[in-house]
Amino acid sequence: MMNKLHTLIVDDEAELRRSVISILKSTMPEIDFTIDEASTGKEALEKVKQQQWDLVLMDVKMPEMNGIEALTAIKEHDPRTFVVLMTAHSNLHDAVVAIKEGAYDYVEKPVNPQQLTEIVRKSQEARDLVSSLALSNPVFDDDIESEFVGGSSKMKEVFNLIYRLCKVDTTVLVRGENGTGKELVAKAIHFNSPRKSGSFVAINCGAIPESLMESELFGHEKGAFTGAVERKIGKFQMANNGTLFLDEIGELRPDMQVKLLRVLQERKFTPVGGTREVKTTTRIIAATNRNLEKMMEEGTFREDLFYRLNVMPIFLPPLRERIDDIEALTQNFIKKFSKQHGRTINAVTDEVLTLLKAYRWPGNIRELENVIERAFIVENSHQITVDSLPESLKLAPKESPDKTASVGYSGPLDFDAFKEEMEKEFIMSALKANNGRINQTVAQANIPKNTLLRKIRKYGINVKDFTTEE
Q1: What sign has the CA pseudo-torsion 202, 206, 207, 212?
Q2: Over the chain, what HEC string results?
Q3: In sequence order, what are the residues at sequence separation of 6 or more whose Cβ sits closer than 8 angstroms to the Cβ of residue 87?
Q4: What span, in angstroms and rounded, lies between the C-alpha atoms of 168 and 410?
């Protein structure tokens, strides 16, 4: 199946527009282009407001509204639109400024076919990353006003989130259970930002032995310790001018937390066994599945490091809280593996969908993806049947409605209604026990702050009702 690309070519020279169209269609036969043209930035903006575009290739110098002004207006209207600027060599400064304002990239005039093709392909890879991220349903900020959005509006909101994060260089903290897509968030931010030409370097802080962590992050000099037979470059240097993804940041021991904090504050570090300081321009994106608030209460995670990391927090909800999204996620993986494995499987049976929705998904989206890929390997028909599902999923225990009697539940015999009522009661009890203090409730009840605030909003709980005068 050919990829479709709705493309708008914007330039006040008709000959250049025709040249770009010819290049796209002749050099990228694997893409089904739907192309329209505009001669001014103002005309381009009008067309963008009338319908959605995947890609806008636009000149910088144009009458009425220049490319940078049009770029700003287009991204504000629909952040899903990727904009690539075309500019003369003498105007490269404008193009660099535009990238900081949200343009994906720029191509010099006269347009080089190979350069244009490469940029268009990379823009589509970056777009696919964000589209995949939308399926993880990220929530921006740990503010109580954060909420989930659905359908096409969710996609637009996620692109807007990435657009906002790409325009700044601040640290991002991604929170969520294993398998919810935390590294995908980091990659989507990196490959849609001005840092995309730099390296994306990932390190799992929980998988590196404590004795080697400092060397892994900052590097070491030859002879710095037993076994250091040659100089080693650390992850911070490898990711210079790029992005360093620190997964499982909650696993860092206290002395390494101090050293990481210093790097974040001073933007420099010293390799193990070295005497010279190395400057770093690396952007940090950290992630964790741990309850950092509780760890701060226990003294195992530094409060100053938490606030340094938590500048731009993103929360990824577990799949068990997003049952309605399972069908869309499944279809997405079916499309992915149909292409990857060359199969014609295009659906799941109703019985399979029922089982998928009833399962608890401790491994979240990653586990669902693995289940669908396994089904592609063992399935013989054109749709996924129960026979191709793993036994662990088919035999997963189901909650019995009879259990409701043991806790005094008197609502309908519906598991979702029962679960929500019990959840609401638990949160109200936790708030009452902690005098309505959010951070204290987070630590004592072992519930992530993002989750607590979201549930408070969901159930319409007034925190002030649990606050008593002292």
Answers
A1: positive
A2: CCEEEEEEEECCCHHHHHHHHHHHHHHCCCEEEEEEEECCHHHHHHHHHHCCCCEEEEECCCCCCCHHHHHHHHHHHCCCCEEEEEECHHHHHHHHHHHHCCCCEEEECCCCHHHHHHHHHHHHHHHHHHHHHHCCCCEECCCCCCCCCCHHHHHHHHHHHHHHHHCCCCCEEEEECCCCCHHHHHHHHHCCCHHHHCCEEEEECCCCCHHHHHHHHHCECCCCCCCCCCCECCHHHHCCCCEEEEECHHHCCHHHHHHHHHHHHHCEECCECCCCCEECCCEEEEEECCCHHHHHHHCCCCHHHHHHHCCEEEEECCHHHCHHHHHHHHHHHHHHHHHHHCCCCCCECHHHHHHHHHCCCCCHHHHHHHHHHHHHHHCCCCCECHHHCCHHHHCCCCCCHHHHHHHCCCCCCCHHHHHHHHHHHHHHHHHHHCCCCHHHHHHHHCCCHHHHHHHHHHCCCCHHHHCCCC
A3: 59, 60, 61, 67, 94, 95, 106, 107, 108, 109
A4: 51
Are 411 and 417 a contacting pair, CB within 8 Å? yes
The pLDDT tens digits of the residues spanning 407-440 come to 455 566 666 677 778 888 888 888 888 888 887 7
Alpha-carbon distance of 171 to 52, in angstroms, equals: 31
Q: Are strands 268-269 and 172-176 parallel, antiparallel or unpaired?
A: unpaired
**Residues paired with residue 250 on neighbouring β-strands, in sequence order:** none
pLDDT exceeds 90 at position 128:
no
Q: Which residue has better confidence, 113 or 409?
A: 113
The first and second tokens of residue 210, run together, are: 């404590």
Write out pLDDT tens, residues 258-287: 999 999 999 999 988 887 899 999 999 999
- pLDDT, tens digit, 9 for 90 and up, residues 196-240: 989 999 999 999 988 889 999 998 888 767 777 688 889 999 999
Which amino acid would we find at residue 392?
A: S
The residue length of the chain stands at: 470
pLDDT reported for residue 147: 43
Which residues are paired to 312 by β-bridges? 172
Instruction: Give, for 154, the enclosing helix (H) or strand (E).
Output: helix 151-166
Q: In whole angstroms, how far apart are CA 262 and each of 164, 204, 266, 273, 305?
A: 26, 20, 6, 17, 9
